[in-house]
Amino acid sequence: MERENRTLITEFVFQGFSSFHEHQLTLFAVFLALYTFTLAGNIVIVTIIRTDRHLHTPMYFFLSMLSTSETVYTLVTLPRMLSSLVGMNQSISRAGCATQMFFFVSFGITNCFLLTAMGYDRYVAICNPLRYSIIMNKRVCVQLVGGACSIGLIVATTQVTSVFSLPFCATKVAHFFCDIRPVMKLSCVDTMANEILTVIISVLVLVVPMGLVFISYVLIISTILKIPSDQGRKKAFATCASHLTVVVVHYGCASIAYLKPKSENSRDQDQLISVTYTVITPLLNPVVYTLRNKEVKEALLRATGRKLS
């Protein structure tokens, strides 16, 4: 029976935002605007960092990698979500679903560890400023980014292999993309082992990086408080504010989505949380790092031939 079910299910159908049917065109307009701004903003950040020599530092190298990763992360889910909102084909092949899940998980986890690397960079910059250029050399920066990408690829391979080894009996995915739990719910068999694996992976890729970032900021704050001048403390806090804002929202949304009990939220609540970490969180990079970051604003003004007032 299981072998028969495996061959029967060759594609899935997204239910998407069917419960918001009368508002789908409004949702399309809002999400399209947010997606356009996200793409444009991240492309501007990557371009300005690559072209402005003042931003050729480890901090902005990590930021450009994060913006690149976030851009691909949104390309995995949002175009298909937008097409489904205007009534286009909502089906996806089994292989397509597995591919979408692989890239979504891979880049999502890569982003988590890139934020951790950025936290370490801020720790070294503030707590060991005299040795900063030695510790955060180009080789170390490349290794940290490579490590983040490798963890993402390994975990995504493990997670997707686990989910798609299950036999499926249903085709309607109660979501707008192939996320882990909505796809597992379509299985014919008990998925407890897969649920346990998902929780273990979620703890490792969310709690561990969050813990490392937390330790970094405890040490950072303790160092900042020892700075004698108010101006020095203010400047030190300013260098961390943008990163800390992104970290709180990114880890907060991901934790609510993947560390909560299995049946705690309704389908609509789950989708709202998913919209937050697939649409809103990637928007944070261009918003936070352009509106709140003086160096990036100065680089943008230099690129347009103006001066910062």
Which structural class matches the secondary elements?
mainly alpha
From the spread of the alpha carbons, the general shape counts as globular
Provide mean pLDDT, rounded. 83
Tally of strands: 3
Considering the chains and any ligands shown, give keywords for the structure.
globular, mainly alpha, 11 helices, 3-stranded mixed beta sheet, single chain, disordered N terminus, 3 strands
In short:
The protein contains eleven helices and three strands; from the N terminus they run H-E-H-H-E-H-H-H-E-H-H-H-H-H. By secondary structure, the chain is an all-alpha fold. Strands 2-1-3 form a three-stranded mixed sheet.
Question: What do these coordinates show?
Answer:
- 74% of the residues lie in helices and 3% in strands.
- It is an all-alpha fold and 309 residues long.
- A three-stranded mixed sheet has the order 2-1-3.
- The protein is globular.
- The relative contact order is 0.14.
- The model is unreliable at 1-7 (pLDDT under 50).
